Amino acid sequence: MTGYGTASKENGKVKYSVEIKSLNSKFLELNLRLPKVVSDKELTLRTECSKLIERGKVNLNVTVEYADQTAKASSINADLLKKYYGQLQQIANELNDTNVNLFELALNMPEVVTNNDDTVDDEESGVLMDAFYDAVRHFNTFREDEGNVLAQDLKKRAEMILTYLGEVEALEVERIPLIRQRIEQFLNDSVGKENVDQNRFEQELVYYIDKLDVTEEKVRLRSHCNYFLKAFDSADSNGKKLGFISQEMGREINTLGSKANHAGIQQIVVRMKEELEKIKEQLLNVL
Q1: What is the DSSP letter of 53?
Q2: Three-state DSSP class for 58?
Q3: What is the DSSP letter of 228?
Q4: Which end of the chain has the least Cβ crowding within 10 Å, N or C?
Q5: Among 23, 26, 51, 8, which Cα is nearest to 138's?
Q6: Alpha-carbon torsion 201, 206, 211, 213, what sign?
Q7: What is the pLDDT of residues 247-257, one digit of tens each?
Q8: CA dihedral defined by 247, 252, 255, 259, rounded to 10 degrees?
Q9: pTM
């Protein structure tokens, strides 16, 4: 299921913005992009995401802005730089080597340049987490709204299958007489009416019609559709459950079609399959 949420928090010194986007996935796949200043918070953010976000391919992006742009600027230890430079210059003079950029060498010596963005204090960390939790709330609200729209569409299609099942039952009253008529006509044309043993014919017809009986398929299909609709009332994640139920619905619809032996019923079965395919496509977006 797609999702989107964003939030910003600031305290006068720093502003954190958090953006969360997701696509559907069978598992929770997290991709975090964090500024270096909060890189040590990655484990915390991953842990909270696993608690608060259902499965999906989730991208979380954090940006930071400081009111004082020099607050996290690197600082130079001037005394240490001069000491390194002097020592390097003395060695270069002794070696009569004037081709070396001594200043660049001294600048790259240990502890000359100190980065001030390695860590954040508790107050700044709190601003980040507040922005994160707000973004997650917006993200989950987005998903819930999309889920409600999907639920209505899925319910409508399951109800259409039940409607089509009612149409099948309405046509069944003419199904058996038509089957009997076709078989009887075939025998009459093949061997002649006077050569047909009516008792044997009736026995074989009962056996054949019993094999084509779809009562069980209708009962199971109606049960699966009702269970499918009932599953939306559960507070738990229903995507996998609905997927399993839709597979069972498909089995009954296929069997119903193979046993139909009636053009009108087979056309209705095709419409059932169309609705079921749309259900399966939508279920790919359900958690």
Answers
A1: -
A2: strand
A3: H
A4: C
A5: 8
A6: positive
A7: 999 999 999 98
A8: -160
A9: 0.65
